[in-house]
Write a structure and sequence with these properties.
By secondary structure, this protein is of the alpha+beta class. Helix content is 36%, strand content 20%. It has a 20-stranded antiparallel sheet, sandwiched between helices. Helix 7 runs antiparallel to helix 8.
């Protein structure tokens, strides 16, 4: 996935929250939204969010006069990206700034009647049973016929569900109802100016304003907007049934509220407890698979050709991840930013007779990240990294659990054939993958990054270090794999053999799930690009320091083969120690993941490329995210992205970096999935 979850609309909310005082008369949004909510973001008190965010170093940076031209450019780009959402709801963030009275919440939904769907399946079963009886089928054939009929009905229902989508916004306007009425009058005027037809309807005594736009050729139905003011709240949606269900909950709270949806409830309870009394300024929740389906529906359905990765992941057990939710606080006593999140993924409930002992099924069994006490950096990791991610993973098992995933993605039973071909093909490396590689994998992996000067699109360096239990055997395996590869160049350094793979034409492979790009459901679909170019980038590999090292640049491996003094290792750096101490205070102890980042170094490559006008060429992770966010929608497939952000307005990086402090987070495996807690500190260390 090319972008952080909820990142785009979280930024938009953060930029837009400028107004008024809080009151708590209005009903909380989670009691009004249904459990079919697939993405949700809430600001409980917009004044406090603005106040605290402005005190963070990032907030101070954004107010620095030297940043204003660029900030205004970014805000304009964000408004453009969210313009479709604004059109659907008839509301823009700028319009809302004078009507906030308390909480503001926005949600993407996938409306669905589960009871009606269950009744449809039952009817299909009854009908098929009667038909089998009439045809006098034997027991086995009858059972198969009924199962086939139910499966067909289920597929029809699934297809219908994937087409469902809705957006809703709830704004507490307590103390600002007159301003809210003025706003709705302005919205009505704007709709009418765009050719919409105005009407009204009444639901449970509440008058609803309705605007219907002429159906476009690309739309299956005419676009509609519904909104009203009820009990000090603006309620807006693009579907009448969604707005009606929200209004119904004012009178009769149901059992299908978002607040009672287990993934949401568990994540909010965890985050609230983990905050330990610190006030949350922003709350979020996402159900990843449903969210992606809703985004696809808004984009007109799946447009990519080839294997549908979303379906593959769903079929392979990854729907065990039922929701991700958490809370964020800005400018606390100890942190610039503090956050706590729960990835709700409880163990599969086994049916009687199911003897499986793994937590999840199929390829999702790969998600086995044990907690361990020691997740500190290895002594050979140099002080000057930009980011350091280390995690515990049962890689030996994960490799073989990937079989069903690979097969389904390939559309054939290829996994075993490939493994056997590697071992027995007389023209291949003749490696027994299990005996010569996977049996020697440890349970810890580390990912490092930094950059080289001068800054170019290829400046960011990355390295993956995989713990191995038998370095000599693994190095022998690497040698066998590389010796007959014409693209591999053998080098030696400090007694180590390094294999450099040269592929100048290569492009870094990107796995993307269409529709899952971090937006709020309104981006145009991106067509599949068909390329004949090789996808393996330049890289280098060796075995050293008890790890299989794979890097994007051969000089990165050379650097770590020159062991640093104790004082020059990452673990001795003061900013690393400060983050470690902060994470310990947040509860870090027995963890599965630990991340440390120097945000100034982590962002520098992308920042400098922005200033140079070369950001579309960036091969850094952050660069790719920004490219996806700000790509021109009318760009040709093979055309280099046009840089839409004017980086010439940015000041020298040395001015900016003093605002960017160290950050970190840790992940812990729990019965219900994974918890994540982290923070960003100010640049000045205490």
């Amino acid at each position: 996935m090319a972008q952080p979850l909820l990142s785009r609309f979280a930024v938009a909310l953060s930029v837009a929250v400028f107004a008024t005082t809080q009151a708590h008369a209005a009903k909380p949004s989670e009691t009004l939204l249904p459990n079919t909510t697939k993405a949700y973001i809430s600001v409980p008190d917009v004044d406090k969010l603005r106040e605290h965010f402005d005190q963070t170093q990032v907030g101070i940076l954004l107010k620095d006069p030297v940043m204003q031209p660029f900030v205004e450019d970014v805000q304009g780009q964000i408004r453009d990206k969210l313009s479709e959402a604004s059109v659907r709801l008839g509301l823009s963030w700028d319009d809302l700034k004078d009507v906030y009275g308390g909480e503001v919440a926005m949600a993407l939904l996938q409306p669905w009647d589960h009871a009606a769907a269950a009744a449809t399946l039952e009817a299909a079963s009854i009908t098929a049973t009667a038909q089998a009886k009439a045809a006098k089928l034997n027991a086995a054939d009858a059972t198969a016929a009924v199962a086939a009929a139910v499966d067909k009905a289920q597929k029809t229902l699934d297809a219908a569900r994937r087409e469902q989508r809705a957006v809703a916004m709830l704004v507490d306007v307590t103390g600002h109802v007159p301003q809210a009425n003025v706003l709705l009058a302005k919205v009505a005027k704007n709709h009418l100016a765009k050719g919409a037809k105005q009407s009204s309807l009444e639901i449970d005594g509440v008058n609803i304003a309705v605007f219907t736009h002429a159906k476009k050729e690309t739309e299956s139905t005419a676009r509609m907007s519904f909104y009203c003011i009820h009990e000090d709240q603006i309620i807006s949606s693009d579907r009448q049934d969604v707005l009606a269900s929200i209004l119904a909950k004012f009178k009769t709270p149901g059992t299908d509220d978002l607040k009672d949806f287990e993934p949401f409830a568990k994540s909010m309870t965890y985050a609230h407890t983990a905050m330990e009394g610190t006030e949350a300024h922003l709350r979020f929740f996402i159900e990843p698979f449903g969210y992606t389906e809703v985004k696809r529906a808004y984009s007109g359905g799946r447009k990519r050709r080839g294997t549908d990765l979303l379906r593959v992941l769903q079929n392979q057990g990854f729907t065990a991840v039922q929701g991700i939710g958490g809370q964020v606080s800005f400018k606390t006593e100890a942190h610039d930013i503090r956050h706590h999140t729960l990835v709700f993924a409880p163990a599969i409930k086994r049916k009687p007779g199911d003897l499986a002992v793994t937590k999840y099924d199929l390829a999702a069994r790969m998600l086995d990240f044990p907690n361990k006490a020691d997740v500190t950096p290895m002594a050979w990791i140099p002080r000057g990294v930009a980011t350091h991610l280390t995690f515990n993973w049962k890689m030996k098992d994960a490799f073989w659990y990937a079989e069903s995933l690979v097969n389904e993605f390939a559309g054939d039973e290829v996994f075993k054939d490939v493994i056997e071909n590697i071992q027995f093909d007389p023209h291949g490396p003749q490696i027994d993958i299990k005996k010569e590689l996977t049996n020697h994998l440890g349970e810890r992996a580390t990912i490092l990054s930094d950059y080289r000067l001068p800054i170019t699109p290829k400046s960011e360096r990355m390295m993956v270090a995989i713990e191995v239990t038998n370095p000599e055997t693994v190095m022998h395996t690497v040698n066998k794999a590389m010796e007959n590869d014409p693209a591999a160049k053998k080098r030696e350094h400090n007694g180590h053999v390094i294999w450099e793979l040269l592929n100048e034409e290569a492009e870094v492979a990107e796995i993307q799930i269409e529709g899952f790009d971090g937006g709020f459901g309104f981006d145009a679909p991106v067509e599949q690009v068909e390329e004949d170019k090789p996808f393996i980038p330049n890289s280098a590999v060796t075995v050293a320091n008890g790890h299989l090292l794979i890097a994007t640049h051969v000089d990165y491996i050379v650097d770590v083969l020159n062991p640093p003094s104790v004082a020059d290792s990452l673990g001795e750096a003061e900013d690393f120690k400060a983050i470690a101490e902060s994470l310990a205070a947040l509860g870090s102890d027995q963890d599965s993941f630990r991340v440390f980042a120097r945000t100034d170094d982590a962002y520098r490559t992308t920042y400098e490329l922005l200033r140079q006008g070369k950001m579309p060429e960036s091969e850094s992770m952050l660069g790719k995210i920004l490219n996806a966010m700000f790509t021109s929608e009318d760009a040709e497939e093979d055309e280099l992205r046009e840089q839409q952000l004017d980086g010439s307005k940015l000041p020298e990086f040395q001015i900016v970096r003093r605002y960017l402090g160290p950050a970190g987070f840790f992940v812990r495996t729990v019965d219900e999935g994974w918890t994540m807690s982290g923070c960003l500190l100010t640049k000045e260390l205490k």
